[in-house]
Design brief:
Blueprint: H1 2-20, H2 38-49, H3 63-75, H4 86-121, E1 133-134, E2 138-139, H5 141-150, H6 160-163, E3 168-170, E4 180-183, E5 193-199, E6 202-207, E7 211-216, H7 219-223, E8 225-230
Antiparallel strand pairs: 1-2, 3-8, 4-5, 4-8, 5-6, 6-7
Helix pairs in contact: 2-4, 4-5
Length: 232
Amino acid sequence: MKKLISLAILGVFLMLAPAQTVQAAVGDTLLKVGTTGSDVVQLQTELNYLGYNVGIVDGIFGSNTQAAVKAFQSAQSLSADGIVGPITGNQLNSLYATKVSQKSNTQSRQEKANAIIATGKKYIGVSYLWGGTSPGTGFDCSGYVQYVFAQNGISLPRVSRDQYTVGTSVDFNNLQPGDLVFFSFARNGIVDHDGIYIGNGQFINSSSSKGVTIYDLGPYWKSVYVGAKRVF
């Protein structure tokens, strides 16, 4: 009878154990050459993602994984012993989480920029109109920029000079699609024209001579260039 009761209790325990299992973070248990299992899989995944190549993610802590751990530890000014304990694990987890978040944010910005540029290109050929703010009647430069961004949920001031006061300044060599580019035709530093950078050294704008069109940021435009702003 006692034997049956013991077996019954053991059976209940085995059924409940998987439901109580919680995956540990890298570093919660000591990982070193010869260790195997899901913790090593996570370790290898994080190392690969951060650029420390372990080769195939197989859940086996071998020489390649050890070399990658040592390289990571050296880069982080940690003791390069090739063993993953709490210190190495916490640093690895933190950097991994940061990079994943940054990638997610970058993808989100790229998606938003693609949407803005797609919206802007829909109005290529719309004529220029001083004070114009809609495709039905025409756009001036800032009216066009304001309209395109508004269609994508971003509110901007009405005129180019005021649009230049918002967002974060961007160096010319670091322009990204979706950035606003500003110009001074009078070459006195006072903004009087703007457009939307679309990549590959080009921007789209509503010019007085051609309406909504795409230009290369060539010698002329560089000569009147004032700066750029990132507003999302």
